[in-house]
What does this fold into?
Amino acid sequence: MTNARRCCGLRSGDLISRVKSFLGLGAKAMRFRQFTDGMGNFSMLVPAGWKCDEDIAVVEGKYTISFQPPDGLSQFSVSIDAQVPPGLRFTKYAKSELESPSSGIYTPVRKSSFHKMPAFVREYCYTSGGRRYFGGGVMFFSGAIVYSLSWSAPQAKQGAQEGLFARMKDSFSPSRGFVMRKATPPRPARRNGA
It folds into this structure.
């Protein structure tokens, strides 16, 4: 397995480019807008010119909202699992979701925290259509909802995009909106005098 950190390594000048991008000091200073999820589960800053795919379908309490720049080469996605069972063992859940072959990209995750919530993070690189990409993600549990943030961009844009993705991620604010629970059957009516 390729070490994700090594394959996405820094090139000369990348650190300065990343800092400028994060601070909005680059040639293309980025403007952001506030985005609030229509289901009320989160809000975050999104680059003003980016498209949002809000055409979502909630399937078994899960849905994803994706954001892309006009060129469509980069992406930042937010996946929500609002139908978690009571007593969820988050470590087991996160590892099975993030380290399974069905997740599309296999890379080990490491335990972390995100806004004081338990989290797992990962970084990776991959090739698609002859182009190298870098990506990353963080999955965390609010106590009621599992959130998964993921991002990817062409490796050639890594210096500029990492600061942008960091700003989007750091601005993420979970909220308690649409929370699904499995329905419980109604209790039988009490009979009077019986």
